Amino acid sequence: MLKVTNKAAAILKAAKTAEGASADAGIRIHQAPLPDGSRERGIGIAVTVKEQPEINDQVLEQDGLRVFLESALIEPLDERTLDVQEADQGMELVFR
Questions:
Q1: What are the residues whose beta carbons fall under 8 Å from the beta carbon of 89, sequence distance 6 or more?
Q2: R_g of the chain, CA atoms, integer Å
Q3: According to the model, what pLDDT value does residue 68 have?
Q4: Is 66 exposed, middle or buried (0-12, 13-18, 19+ CB in 10 A)?
Q5: How far apart are the first and last CA of the chain?
Q6: Are 34 and 52 within 8 A, CB to CB?
Q7: Closest Cα to residue 6, out of 58, 84, 59, 69?
Q8: Kind of pairing, strands 45-50 and 26-31?
Q9: How far apart are CA 91 and CA 8, in angstroms?
Q10: How far apart are CA 82 and CA 79, in angstroms?
Q11: Cα(89)–Cα(35) distance, rounded to whole angstroms?
Q12: Between the CA of residue 24 and those of 15, 19, 43, 75, 94, what are the distances in Å?
């Protein structure tokens, strides 16, 4: 099952608040096209604020953060951890 670090949960909760989402809203992790359209380098992943999960999403709750994981990503992200790291443009989300 996907895990979320405390740091990542704090950043995602702040993003949810900045979007003006309700207290029950969550963060949806779903597939997205890679920038160059190539699937050879891996899976493109996007994170968005959503009020409710989609029909087949797996719903997780960690550190008071609801996470809606697209069904197609359940297996690829199994046993992974969503974390944050320093980047040139600030903090970025990473899967470990």
A1: none
A2: 13
A3: 95
A4: buried
A5: 13
A6: no
A7: 84
A8: antiparallel
A9: 10
A10: 10
A11: 18
A12: 14, 13, 28, 25, 24
Please give the pLDDT value at position 30. 92
Range of the domain at 40: 3-95
Residue with tokens 């359209």: 37
DSSP 1: -
CATH of the domain at 89: 2.60.300.12
Q: Which residues of the chain register pLDDT less than 50? A: none
- pTM for the whole thing? 0.85
Q: What is the largest CA-CA distance in the chain?
A: 38
Given a contact cutoff of 8 angstroms between Cβ atoms, the answer to whether 82 and 3 are in contact is yes
Residue type, 68: F
Count of domains observed in the chain: 1
Residues 76, 8, 70, 2: what is their CA dihedral angle, to the nearest 10 degrees?
A: 40
